[in-house]
């Protein structure tokens, strides 16, 4: 392939250069070593658009930071990427640091960045959650936040729409002059060759290596690792601004900042490491993040951590600045070397500047083309759409009515669009970062199996292709059209009719409530279920041991569920499947009916009116992030429930050598199931002194098959880049801290997490129901299962996590009866 | 011999002893099922086996169980029989998938409607 210009590296800088180049009369290609754009620092950084008060005046960092910052509004508007100028605050703790603020004021003035110093009182007024130890702060109103990988995806998509070609899995190994000295020849690790008149080196952390292949001016990049914690969606708006601390030589210190997605990011550490691929998090690093963040935010709620990750900054050690422009001794070889922070902020400006230099040297003219492609809205975000827009979209394409990711409310249509895009997702991570699927609090526990199904169908690949590695899925088959999912019968209309009882969820809790409500005399009873079939999680619990109390016999999960399905069918209770309840608005003063908004592929958006509601959404598993297990983030780490779904429902075995972390009942049950299915379960690791699961499960799932249970132990490191290759396990002391010297190692390809369940209550909170911080479910009156909102009742694991489904059914029957009584008396 | 009863979530701690004359005494149980379990664990321990059977033409497997507990020593034979079997749909709960599985005299039955 011969082109005019090749950009090496599809991070935010490479994509920005490609997008800017696409405006010229040039053939442009982007070569990327990874399988997707934004695979390096662009996917793991602080997501901050820096104001520019920190960079040393006169440097490229200062120049492009300030230029880039000014471009962000327009760039993000053109690309439809969320961006917010929330402003930055740099905190000073005491007189010494207050002096340091004055240095920043001077730098800001030299860089042309507006700032002002505010005192403690004003600081506390603006940010009530800030530490009382902070005595003053620098306020920089032009600081902002954005989503770095979304910016990169959309930049790439726009470039592709303008004709830029993207080539993935193309790791550049050799660069030589092309035959006849007509340009450059690039040779990839897999033997593919590309020729271009000009090269632009945007290879991030590896950009020094590429430069050193062609130029006598050598550079050296050190990987500077930063570890982060991400906190769950912050409804209270803990901080309005991005909260920095006075910077040090190693960087801008630990920050606490809101993100454009509504979560809170905390970090990074700064540690120079020898290995340019080592993106593991560490115990010590995460401790440092916590300690640093507490300095700003003493109330840091560790219970809200949903994930932790690390990124590598490309820190150039010889110049210490962004190295931009044509190499002095290599004609038409352009560099963007050492673009570390503020690289994200600078990227749009670097892209413009480099594209201009390249086109000037190639003698290319500008196309009569707006940089803003009409194709830029290539995937609609249903969660941000107005109801009418959404209804129209669902009518056109029903897959936009099928919610796959419950936590972030992402539909099948959005996922398919992200896969079908020009620079489409080909991996689970690719879908996740483009659509936010699996980025919410359950971190993909529920939707991963669904996602595998959709990716497989879209790309024409077996599910296993997505389990082996975080990387490459082979060539795409974009044209394939699938989508043969079944829909539940959509029974009741909405019209003028008001239901007596609407039940959210058709697991055992919801069905038991609906049956009890009907038996207690409720007339219109309707159950709404997001899955394609009723039965809830019991469908995948194929082991026995259910129903001793309720049915006086021992049933398996699917059998137990079927009993309740049959009871609902006998009573003619309609169960609307494949439908996700999005919102519950309680009856206002003077009204009698609660409004429940639900979405389905066939029905689109519908508003049901009902006198009472029973919440029966169940619970979800605690994800890895909540446990703060250090290590890499490879494929092969699943929650026990995800493995249960994969094995029992989808017929997919995730691995052969398994370690289980946590001794919850699902983990114990899965130890046996995986053993039955041919895997070797090496150990079950429990941090506490006793198992959190039932003793009978320890006996019949572990002891029967000689699987060791290591109490007072925990996983202290997860190893493996693409796939899990092993875990380190240490004994812990009474404070649950790992004891040095007790470390042991397991070679394994799968780590299963079984660390407890949390009630699922997004809807409950939206409905304004008062929550119980202990159970993490709604506060209920145990006699009636009534919540704090009149007409709204709750039953089952949505209230608190039960050991036994029989008690779920019993309490949900109470909720159903109370709901019926409420409806008949109102 | 100390053991945990697996009949219900209570998990009673049983003490099961065999006297010189062969009679077995169970203590620590709180229900008749517990006593029977303790006795059986010494004489002929049994377990319910649940698992999956391949469905012709589908990736999704059918969940199955032994209709009653089978001798512990037979579990791997039962699992092998499950692995060998393939069923044709439709199937209803309780349908016999493999009769007299692994020579135990006990049937393997479906636990879901598919």
TL;DR of this structure?
The complex is a heterodimer of chains A (about 850) and B (about 110). Chain A is α/β, with parallel strands linked by helices and about 850 residues long.
Segments of chain A where pLDDT lies below 50 for 5+ residues? 470-494
- Find the count of extended strands of chain A (DSSP E, 2+ residues): 43
Instruction: Decide which structural class fits the backbone of chain A.
Output: alpha/beta
Please trace the helix and strand order of chain B, writing H or E for each element: EEEHEEEEHEEE
Share in helix of chain A: 25-40%
> Main beta sheet of chain B: strand number and arrangement?
5 strands, mixed
Shape of chain A: globular
Structural class call of chain B reads alpha+beta
Low-confidence stretches of chain B: none
Average pLDDT across residues of chain B? 93
Q: Quaternary status of these chains? A: heterodimer
Radius of gyration of chain B: 17 Å
The whole-angstrom Rg of chain A is 28 Å
Q: Report how far apart the termini of chain B are.
A: 44 Å
Task: Report what the structure shows.
The complex is a heterodimer of chains A (826) and B (114). Chain A is of the alpha/beta class and 826 residues long. Chain A has 20 helices and 43 strands. In chain A, the strands form eleven sheets. In chain A, strands 1, 2, 9, 10, 11, 12, 19 and 20 form an eight-stranded mixed β-sheet that branches. The longest helix of chain A is centred in the N-terminal third of the chain and has 20 residues. The radius of gyration of chain A is 28 Å and the shape is globular. In chain A, 58% of the residues are buried. About 3% of the residues of chain A have low confidence. Chain B is built from two helices and ten strands; from the N terminus they run βββαββββαβββ. A five-stranded mixed β-sheet of chain B has the order 8-5-6-10-9. A three-stranded antiparallel β-sheet of chain B has the order 1-2-3, covered by helices on one side. By secondary structure, chain B is α+β, with helices and mostly antiparallel strands. Chain B starts with a strand and ends with a strand. In chain B, 34% of the residues are buried. Helices cover 19% and strands 32% of the residues of chain B. In chain B, β2 and β3 form a beta hairpin. The mean pLDDT of chain B is 93. Chain B is elongated. The interface between A and B is medium-sized, with 30 and 26 residues.
